[in-house]
Amino acid sequence: MCGIVGYSGGRSAASILLNGLKRLEYRGYDSAGIALGGPDGVCIHKREGKVAGLVEQLGDYENRPEIQRAHSGIAHTRWATHGPPTTANAHPHAGGSGEVVLVHNGIIENHSSLRAKLQADGYQFVSETDTEVLSHLIARELLETESLVDAVRLALTQVVGTFGICCMCAAEPDVLVVARRGSPIVIGLAEGETIVASDASAIISHTRQVIYLDDDDVARIEHGSVDISSLDARPVTRETADIDWSSDAVEKGGYAHYMLKEIHDQPEAIRNAIRGRLDATRGTAVLAGLNLEPRDLVDLQRVVFVGCGTSLNAGLVGEYAVEDFAAMLAEVEQAAEFRYRNPIVSSTDLLLAISQSGETADTLAAVREAAEKGACVAGLVNVVGSTIAREAGRGIYLHAGPEISVASTKAFTCQVAVLLMVALKMGRSRRMSREAGIQIVKEIQRVPELVERVVATSDAIAMVAQHFTECQHMFYIGRGYMYPVALEGALKIKEISYVHAEGYHAAELKHGPIALLEKGTPVVAVLCEGPGKDKVLGNVAECQARGAVVVGLITEGDEESRDICDHVIEVPKSPHYTATITATVALQLFAYHVARLRDCPIDQPRNLAKSVTVE
Ligand code: F6R
Predict the structure, then answer these.
(1) Which one of 454, 473, 493 terminates a domain?
(2) pTM (2 decimals)?
(3) Under the phi-then-psi rule, with left for phi > 0, alpha for psi from -120 to 50, and beta for the rest, what region is 568?
(4) Domain final residue, candidates 400, 429, 454
(5) Which residue out of 492, 494, 533, 610 is catalytically annotated?
(6) Residue 230 phi/psi, 5° resolution?
């Protein structure tokens, strides 16, 4: 989604801001802009398209004194919501007659009524955005108050919706005012300077010391000084945190794409996700952040997993594992559906919100709804300090490291690894024996090495992929634990290669989708050894009888499946519950190679954003 960078300090701001924007490109955007404050006032440069186009527009900016003189500024990458991705709609937006300049993530829901009032007062609009409404609103309040920070406060009290903003004004060009409600803002602290961003990856090359703003915090920044207060002007203290990953983690490290790097990161990422969390003697998991003792777990009667997209698919594995290991009621629900369905939850339910970014609007709303109804709420989140992590109060971090590619890979496999540990812990607090627990611990510990073996077959998977570069449609089928794998495989290929792909429960095929099969239609059948495999083989025969070309995702040494399928991709032998991870890694690579051979922009697929902070 949209990205924000701001700078106030002793250095020339332009290159810091432009480099910050490049760091945020992965989030997905369609226009970019920058505003620089200096002795000559605040000057805006913006355009539709990529950051490279903006840099080109600035010309030889490192040798333009009027640009180099600016020691403060704000910058933005916009993912269009209100109005198409044009230069006029790009941020920053000026308010009043240009005395206020603003970048904004989120949505101002009452923008229409505010716009009408401002127009009646003579304010002229040049864009279709909700953001321009806020910039005029701040400019109007600035007429009545002494300072930008007060004007921002007064304007924000009139706003309904979500915002992460960074604002500056011509009268105080070294001052930035930032604020948030539902859209993250991180403040990076360095000697004599401050770098603000919507995401720590734009800050990490300057400093590791950060402050995460809470909802309704407003901060006034001038060079190295940061004053935080509430929307009603009470001083607020926020802790300083250390970013625990290095700037290398946001580099491609020699890989052609972030997605490929992150697929290769997975053995290490899963090691980090399980490190110190498995007790091989007691046959259980140690999940301190959950803060639930065995006696609390016994009182729980149901686990509800909520998430969106890939995180929702991980939740489905969680549902199967909790039922399987703990013989306990479990459900998974799309977070948007959960929030609007008036769900029945109580204090004996554990709601586990799954989110890589920790900022997904619908998942956050589900957390709030479940907490309102008295459920025990926990987060399963990757980004430290994110809103869901903080609001859930209890939870488990993935420790997968930053995920830059829009298509989620290592977050999914780490989510599944953690969910298996949650199910194990639930199981051990109920009927599961110590011996059975020890066996599951051993299997989870083997996963990083098994994933290494799958990643090493990338070239063989590429050979299979080359048969499918021209296809328009694909089907993915699986049963049991392999059903969420089929869903995730289909999601991966559709988002990065633009091949229309659908994941189905293999049994569902006969209830309609089989009508679409014709000669040459590709079907990916997830046939890893385990309950249901033979039934899927039966479904494969039905597909082949209608001319489909079947790619079997099979267990090494499964000659029966190899003989039946037209192409095969192999994964090492493991129980069905951990094969969810290895099989998904193989399908990530399959999707990656199809997309690469189709020459698709793998890390930044069209229309997609890395974190969906609006409904
Ligand atoms: C797919 C993908 C999305 C996200 C979804 C939820 O590759 O990345 O489907 O999984 O937008 O995002 P988080 O996990 O950040 O809540």
Answers:
(1) 454
(2) 0.85
(3) beta
(4) 454
(5) 610
(6) -90, 175
